[in-house]
Amino acid sequence: MSERRLERLCNPTCSNLPAFLVESPGLNSGFMIPHCTSAALVSENKTLCFPSSADTQSTSAGKEDHVSMGGWSARKALKAVKNLENILAIELLAACQALEFRRPHHTTEPLEAVSLIC
């Protein structure tokens, strides 16, 4: 959902904001590349969600037909969470940029505090 919200922010047809949240397009591509990065991370997370148990192998000279993929599943879950952190960070930066195009209007105090950090 985060990447889809980012797409809507960067799309002037949906947001009534400048394309890719950049005032003067050209050499400055704005959030075009961060959006592509976010989409790539979402795509990677889709592949990380494939069940590890579907890739089990028999072991021990054919005496064991199930190998726990718990370790691999945990590593994939950690990678997916790290990707999600980056996806959300990109959306946060874009949202802060979008707020700047709405000035002099303000949002809530907590969101204004976050936008000062960005």
Task: Tell me what the structure shows.
- It is a single chain.
- The chain has 118 residues and is mainly alpha-helical.
- Helix content is 59%, strand content 0%.
- The protein has five helices and no strands.
- Helix 1 (2-10) runs antiparallel to helix 3 and helix 3 (32-48) runs antiparallel to helix 4.
Mean pLDDT: 91
Number of helices: 5
Number of strands: 0
- Strand/helix succession: HHHHH
Q: Could you estimate the helical fraction of the residues in percent?
A: 55-70%
Features:
118 residues
Describe how the helices and strands are arranged:
Blueprint: H1 2-10, H2 12-15, H3 32-48, H4 70-100, H5 109-117
Helix pairs in contact: 1-3, 1-4, 3-4
Outline:
This protein has about 120 residues and is an all-alpha fold.
